[in-house]
Amino acid sequence: MEKHVLLRDLDIPNIREIDIYQANEGYAAWRKALTGMKPEEVMGVVKDSGLRGRGGAGFPAGVKWGFLPKDVFPKYVVVNGDESEAGTFKDHQLIAKNPHQVIEGVALCAYAVQASTAYIYLRGEFAEPAKVLQAAIDEAYAAGLLGNNVLNSGFNLDIRIHLGAGAYICGEETALLESLEGKLGQPRLRPPFPAVQGLYAKPTVINNVETLANVPPIVLNGAQWYRQFGTEKSPGTKIFCVSGCVNKPGNYELPLGQNTIRELIEMAGGTPEGRAVKGILPAGSSAPILPASALDTKLDYESLAAAGSILGSASFVILDESVDIVWAARKMVRFFKHESCGKCTPCREGTFWALRVYDKIVSGQGTQADIDALVDVANGMANKCFCLLGEFATSPILSTIKHFRADYEQFVREHQNGTADEYRDELLRDHAIQVSGQHV
């Protein structure tokens, strides 16, 4: 059953307006913190809640905040709203429909670590949500909830929005920092870690939009209130983005560990025409695909890991029996090849050659040996890339061949005398896009 801790816009019309937000306990946690809590107490309640990062890694948020040195200033809070993972659209809804809860979460994080400036980094395509968020920030300033001496507490806080340019790599936190500083969006060598030397070489907390939207109700209601949802190791609720072969794609907020993948698909209206599920991508293109035998896996970090994949950003892309797995894997590899920043050789060259082999197979010139060649290319990339983009790029290759090798072998056999028109047209279109420099 859904529980709306974050997606409150589904229950409260126009909650993005500050008056309505405040009439529904909005900014109550912010007032509580500034008037009656020390920064370390705010950090402590978030740590005790067990809130894990919702951007993909699932690292405990309060623990991450505690890594910042206490005696180095200035400090920064950076919000990762790049949201470029395929099938992920939860942050978009939070920013556009419930922006004040995001702002309040950012403010509480800033107070906890004693940062006076916060930047919200949004993907370049978020022009309209950015306008909504900026309007909400302006409302908060006008209400005295941001700016100098907030609520006569002596604490100062400025929040600014920065729009990227649509690069997937900028979802990686150090590449995001490089972009925010006006540099080429490429990942940094670590250590030093952002908690020690982040934005402008100063201590920096980087959290996802959804992560920080959880903070106001946690501070207001307490850690034990939050822990009543979810499991011991995966507390709270999580927004699950569901798309692909379902009748009701959208965002669904559920307590972690309460439901299964099968139940999530049923909430999303099931598959078109009741077709059988063939594969599940639990975290967009980045996650290893799971076969239909995993449909009864619980929706939490530990259960997805035990099943052989990751929960990540919980962007569930459902593939039914009408989807060609080889075609789908090629689409994902093409995406990673296009989005590779080119900084490290394994990712830059590996994605290039993997796509070449897929194109050979899809064009009807593939052999059974090419399937093994794909595995060799992916293994040559695994654990050798500068950042996780290259590692993620191996997932659609290795996991689809692991679970659906028979589909690859059948594809090669059936297309040895020439590929079908739909594949030929796609290859020609992709080549034209590569030559022109466009991306669709």
Q: Helical percent range?
A: 40-55%
Strand order of the largest sheet: 6-5-9-7-8
> Poorly predicted ranges (pLDDT <50, ≥5 residues)?
none
Q: If you compute it from the alpha carbons, what radius of gyration comes out, rounded to the nearest whole angstrom? A: 22 Å
Named CATH topology of the largest domain: Rossmann fold
| SSE ordering | HHHHEHHEHEHEHHHEEHEEHEHHHHHH
Strand content range:
5-15%
Q: What's the end-to-end separation, in Å?
A: 36 Å
The counted number of beta strands is 9
Under the CATH scheme, the architecture of the largest domain is 3-Layer(aba) Sandwich
**CATH C-level class of the largest domain:** Alpha Beta
Largest sheet: 5 strands, mixed
The CATH superfamily of the largest domain is NADH-ubiquinone oxidoreductase 51kDa subunit
Shape, per Cα inertia axes: globular
Number of helices: 19
The quaternary state of the protein chains shown equals single chain
Which structural class fits the helix and strand makeup? alpha/beta
